[in-house]
Records
---
Amino acid sequence: MSQDESWWRVCSRGLYSCNWKQSSVKKRKHACCWFSVLALVSLLSLCWMYVCLVTLNDQDDVNWQGFAKLKRWVNWFMVLIIISAAITSYCVLLLLFALFQFALGEPLDLHWLHKILLFLGVIFIAFGVAGISLEWRQEWPTVPLSLQATAPFLQFGAVGALILLSPFVFRGFDAAKGNWSRFLIAVVFVAVSAAIFLCPLSIQSPCLIEMSKLPEKPKLIGHRGAPMLAPENTMMSFNRSITCGVTTFETDVQLSEDRVPFLMHDHKAEFLRRTTNVKEKFPDKQFTDSNNVTWKELQSLNAGEWFIKTDPFGSVSMLSAEDKRRARRQTIPSLLQLLDLAKQNNISVMFDLYSPDVENDTEDTVSTILSSGIDPSLIRWLPPEKREYVNTAAPGFIQVYNNIKDMLNQTGDHLNMKYSKLSIKQISDLRNRSIEVNLWVVNERWLFSLLWCAGASSVTTNSCHILKDMTEPDWVMAPHTYKVIWVTVDVASFIMMIGIYIFQRKTKCFCQREENQRETTLAWNEKELSPFLPTV
């Protein structure tokens, strides 16, 4: 290997173009076009990876939809994350090799295999975007919401990337042939730089506040208990949520054939299939809803083994051997069991009522609650059906609404909505009107931090064991402090890029002078020695 053929030059050329030896052949056509395609696909893959990471909060929804269609419980979202991470890593590394190629003066000759893999990556991302748009469109509002938590730091990262890429842009500008090419490079670079430098003017975040104005930490509501630490909607799950300091149990109620209210989320075609061993216990029966199964039959089912086998949140490894044994023994609890636990610990209960017979089930559920002896003020009544009857039969229940219009029409002051259905401004405005705002389901720290800054009263969560330990949001910054940091970073980066350009210009001029001197010396030597050289 020659001195010029250093190992990093050979590796960069080999990995990018699969050409391990220096070629005397000129660049193939469209090499720059393929470099542009690579840059665009890399940017696209980074954006897609960002979407996957911010929607990780709702991975359970994706897995549930996968189960509803395929009748098999798999952590489909984690599969999506792994594939997306592999595509993004591949594209970014390939782009880095391309930049090394350019810096080392090697031809940008992208191998055909890389072209095929880039095309497959684009196809995968396109299917992912289409899947969200068609089956999970309610998740798109999470992306702009997440920018209120991440935009300041994304801007700092973009400024850093701009500095790192500027030497390559400046070299391309100097190497460009023709004034129009240089003009186009300059205009694009200046426009992108201006957009990155000035984008903080449009960044708004509730966490850009003085620490003294930070609202109270939102209270925690256990979503079906603590489903990351125990099988959902079991007594073990609700007991684990108590250790997290939850103020409310959130659950789902259905009524059996013999009119016993019990806890179970899945209904319709998925009833009992995901979280119990109903197929093994009753292979010859088909339970389509709660009205065709008795309480005795329900009690005979195991409601915990599935949790250990499928590990829906990747959290089973956190459990002790004793906790795993206890989880495997869990059964379906009745509503009365949960009410007794809530009464003993002074914890509120809020639930959805899934039922094919709404009228009778509402009455029987209210009757069960009143007969339990629990303080009526601990019941947060969420089902909208027969609300007038509930108000009459149990005036002490706190009425909770799932939309602003119904709440205002009935002069309510408790709201329960998906976190992406309300804007940050709406949350703040509602809280200023002394309305309790609960948002579901909030599992990630960044989202909890953002809603904390916005002033949410409480959040329904699967990860109460994580959120309970947060003493403040992940970040809070005074607006004046952020402005100083933003301007300082922009000015420093601008000065650095000017310095890089000047250095490159001087280096280029120095190299040109050295080359001219060598050519002059060679010409002079040839002229002086020509009389003594033999003629051919």
---
Amino acid sequence: MCGIVGAIADRDVVPVLVEGLKRLEYRGYDSAGLAVAGSDGLRRVRRTGRVAEMEAAAGAQGLQAKLGIGHTRWATHGGVTETNAHPHISHGVALVHNGIIENHEQQRERLEGLGYVFESQTDTEVIAHLIHHHMQQGKDLLAALQATTGELTGAYALAVVDESAPDRLVAARMGCPLLVGLGEGENFIASDVSAIVQATRRVIFLEDGDTATISREGVQVFDGSGQAVEREEHLSDVSLASLELGPYSHYMQKEIHEQPRAVGDTIEAIIDAGAFVPELFGADAAQVLEEVEGVQILACGTSFYAGSVARYWIEDIAGLPCSVEIASEYRYRNVVANPKHLVVTISQSGETLDTMEALKYAKSLGHEHTLSICNVPESAIPRASRLVFYTRAGAEIGVASTKAFTTQLVALFALAVTLAKLKGRLPELQEAEYLEALRHLPGSVQHALNLEPQVTGWADRHFAAKEHALFLGRGVHFPIAMEGALKLKEISYIHAEAYPAGELKHGPLALVDDQMPVVVIAPNDALLEKVKSNIQEVRARGGQMFVFTDQDSQFGESTGVHVIRTPRHVGVLSPIVHTIPVQLLAYHTALARGTDVDKPRNLAKSVTVE
């Protein structure tokens, strides 16, 4: 959600900024802009729409410079207009901003009293004027930024340049991701390493409260008290190849088909160990997990559905009580905390603001046992957690999460089994069976991918022309029905809802007719016969059923009942395998409807604001 890139070098940085903004497009945005400072002063170009339109305008203006900042904006305060697009300028000071300033109205009123005139409806313009105001009091650019951040309430990542100081840019972070890229005689700043990976893989991650000054010669970082600090340098494992489409039409398609590899990479440490060992989650995980008496999972969106699957596994396999809560709800209620529960936060990016704030709230209630499941090393949520399990999905560009979800499920399954082992509930033979199931999982995922032609047929013939759909599942597969409904609605814009199949007759059945396709997740488990009864309820009302099942289910097609089978039932890991066909259904339905698969309207990849 929004993206920042900045650069200072002995070469023209405009191509670097434009390329960086293109690599940030996946995050979701509605306008783009950049500002450069040099011998001819401060110049800016902004456009609503895609980065390509802004790039063309910059080219038409002959924009060149050795210092600049760029931004992709996802509108919060103020509509989608060029005036509201970033960068914002105040008397030679230009800045870009991710996040939300909660006290912007009070600061706007104060600044208007000082004679500042506002051109936009954004909260960001307040920051530009505040920095200029402090510079008027005799502070240099960095000191003015530090004074300004002391007056802001909210979340922000900031990159700032001043036309009177063309030898540096400054930055600040609070609650929103921001990193510095280190080059030779040039340095960079970005909200995501993908924006600068074409220039460098050496990065340092700014922490909350940090400010930094970046020149060609080096970088200085200061903590929230203004003291100089050293932040550890990291070598990013994000490669340019992982950010390219290759033979695929869309990133979502690429990422769906990368799941056998992503799952295989994520289980590698487990298979290599030949056992479910607590060290998978951190050096002191054994001590922490042995003390755990229950689990509290906090997550948003797709990650919440992963946690909802995990609840079944943790209670069934480990015998521990488990609750799952949407992070944005948890953080705003009076929670009755049990410090002996493990708080598990799940986030693909590791920067999801609601999840981060929920973790902070849990820790304030006395929860010392914390675990982060995340796809991005060194991101904020893992750094704030005692234990960490990094999924190895690789860079996920498509807004609709696919491989991040299935690898989260792998991590959560490993947690459930490890807890069971530490609690003395895992016989050696059962552990061996779980390990064998994991070894076969990448192959089972590939087998599910091989169903793509059949799923495409359903999408083209039965879903593309519809405006509503129902998804049903029971037990551990109900969250997969919820995930399927989410995928369909977010990229095809078809209204979709999911219900436990047993709830069908308690209201949703009233919606069923021949224009409401009903998707059922129905593998051969203990609840299959119950699901078959629910299907008959739909058929009796003229509904069309689309059933994802497996070869073992002895589930036959009939009039109005369409069936696609995975090659075999994979037991406890079935939710992971049955995720694949619902992802494919959403993708191919969206293709048939001509929507923007990778960048669905109104949505962003990394949600760093409330």
---
Amino acid sequence: MNMQAPQQNPSNPDLSRIVRAAIHPGIGIARLGNSREPDGFFIGPETVDLAADALGDVRDATGALKRQAARFRLYGYDAEGQVVAELTADQAQIDWQVHLVNRKAQWFKFDMAMDLEQAAHIEVALRNEHLTGAAREALVIDPGVRSIAGKNNAGEKACFDSGEFMGIKVPLGELRTDSAGRLLVLGGFAQSGSPSGRPIYDPDEPGSFPNASEWFDDTSDGPVRASVILDGRHLPVESAWVVAAQPSFAPHAVGWRTLYDLLVDTYIGCGWIKPAEQVSFLHDVLPVLQRLSGLQWVNKGFAGLFGHGAPMDFNNPHLLARLSCADETYRHLRRAVFNAFRAADNDVHEPRTWPWLYGDTYGGDDDLPANHLAPSSVRSDLLRRWVDGDFIDDWQAASGPVDSLDKLPLAEQPAMLDRAALHFCVADAFHPGIELSWPMRHASLYRAPFRIRERAGDQPLPDYGSHLDQPTALGASGPLHDQPPGGLSRWMALPWQIDAVGCRSGYDKDYDPYLPTFWPAQVPNQVLSEADYAVVIDGSRSREQRLASFHSREHWGRQVKGNFIEKAMQVVEDASVLGVLEVRPGIADDTDFPAVMHVEIERSPGGGSAPDVLSARDLPVPEQDAYATDEARRLAQAGWDSAGQYEEFCRVLRR
């Protein structure tokens, strides 16, 4: 007998069928910003396809960076696990509770991902190990739980503004609700500093690069809960988690391996999610290729091979028609593309293979396989099946982009929210990362897919001693299990600005000034400037001028000058000094120019414009010395002001 779930009218659901509720996304991502305007925020992505105006303006009228709010929704489920309705303040009494904490300064230093083979014999010390007793407790920024209910609500009682670091208050954000009573979590104001005046980086202190002593930042994370009363019934509610991470300076860009990809691989590995029975070109293969082309807007090296009109432009419909064809005709083309990628079981140190991204172990002196990123074993298996023709050619039949959650059937909305929140976050390299770090690839961290295993509030935190080793970190009673508020962000760089300035691309300028790179989707390397964009779309200019401007990418971060510490401190003082990429219209139906372009928008003059700087193509060099000319051009192309600055950055990176 074939039993089917009863049909219902989505506009008039039977709420009596609801037996439980769940908060989505399971892991939400807020981002810091320094705008102090009442409307100085935007809502983060809720679908993986973003319209050009989906996020709105990412700067306010003063040029400050708006904060990204994480929006959480409640969905009601029936006894069979089917979605019945989204629950809003119109149908139910909803009270939200959130607990944001920052534990970075009290946690252990970052040296490398502790689950690597190379970490088997290392021990990492506590950050601020010179502080003991009550002084260590003063390193945790914990304002406590905040609650909110109703529609369009906000206010002082919903602000995380009472937490302190070494005696000074550090706001971690606030709660709001939208017009339907959904929860908005906003993180901090991109504030970092040292109450005692310690340097952000001390070259005489080993391991201080991502571990600044007596420093704080206002990233945070913690649980998101809700109590729901529906028609007089108290519903059990599946809680969620929120992370307030550093800003993304290219908010529409997608990294080559997303945090969502990583978590799916983790859940497949532990048996929570079944691997794909059939390989879909559209869903399993195309993203691996097109994300290479998407990085053209944040790295000039990627633009050269994968950009618009380039030999491997994976947005080119003629190329995709061949790659999506499952018969033998283009089998060798598929194999050639597959062979260009680094093998998942790669045992050599090779920067030439795709995806041209640094791996977890980069930064040391040893040539290790994990110095460069490779497809995961799950993804490699899918690509091998694609090479063999064992896949569905579903590219031509693909529907248009779903750029609004309302366009999706109700049943698909919760999963889309879970995916979209993590789709615009990067996974590797965990050095230590951008939003989150290496613990995210361990199934012990979760109680279910996209649900963090939460530590009971009445349980004291374990004392792991003065040093953390691999057996303890990975052990059954170690920190990769139930999480306290602040348990995820504590593994990250302190402060976050150190990675935004310090981890970039092209460290071996003699090999390539632009490649490999770390996390260009969040921290760009080379960008299409607004000035060059103006030339590109100016039809009165010559074709040669427009092409030269399109292919001439400026160095992102050129607004900050000086040595490593000076650059980092300028971003600490004002994160909005850095450019942010926005989506702008390009040239339709043109072989040389794409119809959509990602353009770097610098801070407006009203916010204090950045000083003029020379571009790489304008850099003067001495004509009489050919070597000096080549050396100067290589340094300028790689974004270094001088050979001394380049050497200093390399020393800092390798610590």
---
Amino acid sequence: MKTAVIGYPRIGSKRELKFAIEKYLKGQIEQSELITKAKALRKINWLDQDNQKIDFISSNDFSFYDNVLDTAYLLNIIPKRYQSLDLDPLDKYFAMARGYQGKAGDVKALAMKKWFNTNYHYLVPEVEDDVQIELNGTKIFDEYQEAKDLNINTKPVIIGPYTLIKLLRFTGTLTIQDIVDDVIRVYVEIITKFNDLNAQWFEFDEPALVLDMDEADIGLFKNIYTKILKEKGAIKVLLQTYFGDIRDCYNDIMALDFDGIGLDFIEGKETLNLIKKYGFDQNKILFAGIVNGKNIWKNDYQKTIILLEEINENVNDIVISTSCSLLHVPYSLENEEKLDEKYKRHLAFAKEKLVELFQLKIISKLGTKHSYYVDNANIFNEAANRSNASVQARLASLKESDFIRQPLFDQRREIQKEKLKLPLLPTTTIGSFPQTSEVRANRRAYRKGEIDETTYCNFNHTMIQKWIKYQEEIGLDVLVHGEFERNDMVEYFGENLDGYLFTENGWVQSYGTRCVKPPVIWGDISRNHPLTVDYAVYSQSLTDKPVKGMLTGPVTMLNWSFPRVDISLKEVALQLALAIKDEVLDLEAKGIKIIQIDEAALREKLPLRKSDWQSEYLDWAIPAYRLVSSSVQADTQIHSHMCYSEFDDIIQAIEDMDSDVISFEASRSNLTLLDTLNKVKFKSEVGPGVYDIHSPRIPSVEEFETALKAMIEKIPVDKLWVNPDCGLKTRGVFETQSSLENMVTATKNIRLKLQQIKK
């Protein structure tokens, strides 16, 4: 039995790639230094896997920003606005990812969306009518050769043509059928070059195969791979799937000339049943995803060996693998010096999952009396006290009325209008302001004990004063305190709730150079003190304008943490909801009349198959949110915020959240969500993001006015809010202030024009 890894974290054990890219983008290092750093990190990754005797190690799983963007770039799917920039290839690549504003031009970035059911974001490739699909660049070949020079013969990996095509955004009149033959031709050219390089295996990643597929989808897939596999030559081809099962196309895949098929036995609910029911082509190798690539809990060898025995009854040749790329977990527990060993022994990050693969390989060969198996069993036989009696009692006492807010929305809206007296097109921001080096230094010094709490809080108060004054000066209508005390919208709250564990270096890439450090839910969740009230009350004391209380919702808290696996996600979500509900009521009692409960990750854990949406997710996710806000007074306005997902197909569920105002990311998607909101007559007031905060670009007043006019054409003006599409913590002060000032100026101009029209 051999072992395989689909992909490996590329940011480095301590985010070395992130810092190198950011220095390069700021002009602090040369491109040659960035490339040298990237090469060194790839070497470490390959050697980590080689040292654990992983048999199938990937190359081309590295990226400076995103693998989907890499694949589109490789196929020359590059819109004209980027091709026309007088920049070198790498800078043009970064312009596609981040936008560009400088001597070479002014362009927006590509749209960004969530990668299936993860918190990773991919760039959405755009296909224009004059696209010339052809091989562009040598990255995939160069990285294969790099590994080969280290005496590691990797399996090159690429986003497969079916998944790529399904992710494309067509901006003109072309359709999939117009480009499919050109896409096939380039993929064949890639395989041919790898045959020339004597590569033994080539991996196509096709996660789109776990989505709902109709006859047209299956026909497209078969057409693509029938033609590609005819030209594969001597190289062996692995079709790798993950994030679910392939129930709609299992037999179609088996009928094609793949040498290996990678199936997910973690999230693939039907994977084992499919093999038992339909069999497995014994001329193919099964790459069995049995080590979870998305969570950080140690593998239970007893359960995994039982699963492998069942698989072995139906399959001759098995390679044990990760269920998906290890991109979605932190790099290594080796960097966790402060976490108690009693917790660490239950965890496995990417590097530790390599050890698990190796040990499972040995156990499969030598049996369950081996020390690897015995030691693992001892860990799982330990009694873990994770329950809190008071939390369990609160859950048991919940009743239906706890999830329903009174009075109904229309009545609340009128009450809130009278109470708040906001102007037409009220302006606000999503929550955070720039986390400058001074802000981070203050927080770091407090954590290290270098300054006392009074000094720490005084600094934050000074920052709040500065930004409240600034917001008043530029004319924002609803203010925020800036979140200078918060490291992350989930981590901050988790640190102040009972039941969480935290890491020092458990960083996971979210997009580009943005990394998050998801907390670990260890036990029952409860709140034993107010989390945000002091700063909210202080901020409101500085102004007569409303200041929003800023909270993270229970579903996002859950989805952006590493959750427990010993109880249901529903139970964890309700525990979180009760804790956050206590905070909402405390804010309201202290006079905070607008409270934002962000659910940025609502769609993230939505099952990939629509048939599972209600029974497995929405039936508890939406009630969990409603539980948080159901007990507030009618004149307290509840906001929520969502970003970087496709919301069109769950818009009814979002309306069922019963928020008074919801802000959406919309700028990168060209406000296409507005058509859906208009079509369904969405009841809540809405704030579609008018500019992209994940890009350093500063939109002009005219650009803002154009966006606002487009919004007014789709949504009743008395239901529209004006705001950025996300928090501003990652932006610099100058670009933040310039963008907000232009946003407010444009809003005032539009208000004036509307008044003139009315007259």
